[in-house]
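User: What would this chain look like folded?
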Amino acid sequence: MDPTPCSQQSLDAGEPLYGSAAADIDHWLLLEHDGQWDKDAVASESLPEAVRAHARAWLEAAPRRRFQLVRDGRQTPLEWPRRLFLVDARPGHARTLEVALTGWEALAALDLASLTETLRNASEPPDGVVVRAAPLVLVCTHGRRDVCCARLGVPVFRELERDLARDNPGRVFQTTHLGGHRFAATMVLLPHGYTYGRLDVAAARRVVRGYFAGRLTDLDRLRGRSCYPADVQAAEFWVRHNAGRYGLESLQLRRRDAEKGQTDVTFWDAETDALHELSVVVDKTHDLASSSCGDVPKPVSRHRIDSYRQVHGATRDFDRDDF
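Assistant: Here's the prediction, encoded as structure tokens.
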């Protein structure tokens, strides 16, 4: 085992950020909680067992779901009501519902299945639930999971919260493990699910203010969009970086075919009505890095674009939903 922090090992190995975000997540459940966070958020013993069971049942009811604990930077104990956020991060459906909880019993009794369907169908929410217009910024500070997240994530969170306190209060939270602590400081932008890594304070400010304005910045720190698998995240990064696409929904996934170590990906370009067709492969390298502090270093993998072509005007005679 290498005593060097995993975040430094990843840097030393030249491990790329793109294609490293937590993958295949369409829906996020975020619970405001200032008790102790265990390594596995949903198993945190500071949560009542009925609440843990309720959250676990929601996770197990369908794939592509994720549960996070969040908290702001207040120094006083969190009182009731506390907030619960349910996020739809699917492309074209980005939306957040917010619930004010009056107690643990209210959460255990909340019909999360029905609320998720309300979110998915963009239906009118029930009484006590509101559609949240403001985005959410989650910075991983989960030091119990990996010390790099606390060491690098906490300063970014504190400065972001201070920076946004006047004009954009209540939008930035600390959160439990987002995946890939070797890329700390890490951050996810919801409801769109774009994940960033290796952030310092200056870069985090640019990224967040860009997101609030409806665009992505600092693409060199973009890990990927959480609703996509890793190979599609890498392909999206490549197109955005090389074609200069910064709009949140500038690129829409139309095809993904994975077989025999290669993934073919097609994006429709909303700015030019062109198709971007890519083939992505994964290369094993001899570079070593630990995925977490204290782990045995393992070979680093890299996504590579094996082929690319752009087809102009290819969609003008077709219903785009058919791709």
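Residues 316-323 have pLDDT under 50 and may be disordered. If you want, I can go into more detail on any region.
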